[in-house]
Design a protein that fits this description.
mainly alpha; single chain
């Protein structure tokens, strides 16, 4: 019940933030722009709408996860909201999990809203519901899997530094997560272990992008399952470390 109460408050806060509203508007504009761009390329409208739409959803989702997550704990410390909370019979692990659960719920609500926009554009373009297939559902599900570890990383940094630094660190680690797989494949030689170590230390976000499957209406890659499990474990580890760090902080 304590975690649920904290999560409920977090959802309300996240959905009322100006940055969240602005980024959601940006996502809607980007989806509309992809529909307009499809008019300029006859025969490729589905590909353009799907690619730009999913890319826009990913961009907005990641930014929301970073900026809202970075302010989650650090903002409470700066505004002294956390003081009466830690004085109550609520463990800091419960506090972190509750805050993260609320943030994750808000991110999923935004993702569902943008999915509805994209699905509408694809259906209008095709004149049927044919584009709303398993590939699209899988791509959206993987977007959710992708933003959750990003949010967990932002919460981790938010547990021991201020909002600005937490956002910078989370963005840096997120970018590294997109480049990790390519770096591991290209970095050969005596020091190849460095790329392998980096690959394990950052969230492997690149393998969770499946825009091509939606664009060309093909099945999702078989390796997606392992990538999703890796992302879930990474998020759980980040939250655990964040809670342990917060446990050691003295708010007196």
């Amino acid at each position: 019940m304590k975690i649920l109460a904290i999560a409920t408050v977090t959802v309300r806060e996240a959905l009322s933030r100006k940055v969240q509203v602005n980024l959601l508007i940006f996502g809607a504009v980007l989806l509309a722009a992809s529909f307009v761009a499809s008019w300029l390329t006859l025969g490729y409208s589905h590909r353009i709408i799907a690619d730009l739409g999913l890319s826009g959803m990913e961009f907005v989702g990641v930014l929301l996860a970073v900026f809202l997550g970075a302010d989650l704990v650090a903002g409470d410390v700066q505004r002294r909201i956390i003081y009466p909370i830690v004085a109550k019979p609520v463990s800091r692990l419960q506090y972190v999990i509750g805050r993260y659960a609320g943030l994750a719920s808000a991110l999923l609500v935004n993702l569902l809203a943008m999915t509805a926009m994209l699905s509408t554009l694809l259906a209008l373009d095709a004149g049927s519901l044919a584009p709303l297939d398993r590939s699209l559902a899988g791509a959206v599900a993987l977007l959710a899997v992708k933003v959750l570890p990003v949010a967990a990383v932002a919460v981790l940094f938010s547990c021991f530094t201020n909002t600005t630094l937490a956002a910078i660190f989370a963005l840096t680690l997120t970018i590294a997560g997109y480049l990790a797989t390519e770096a591991r494949a290209l970095w050969q030689g005596d020091n190849a272990w460095v790329a392998t170590l980096v690959w394990y230390l950052v969230p492997d976000l690149g393998r969770l992008t499946v825009n091509d499957a939606v664009i060309y209406r093909t099945a999702l890659p078989a390796s997606i399952g392992l990538a999703a499990i890796h992302a879930a474990l990474y998020a759980a580890t980040a939250l655990t470390v964040g809670a342990l760090v917060l446990e050691r902080r003295d708010f007196r």
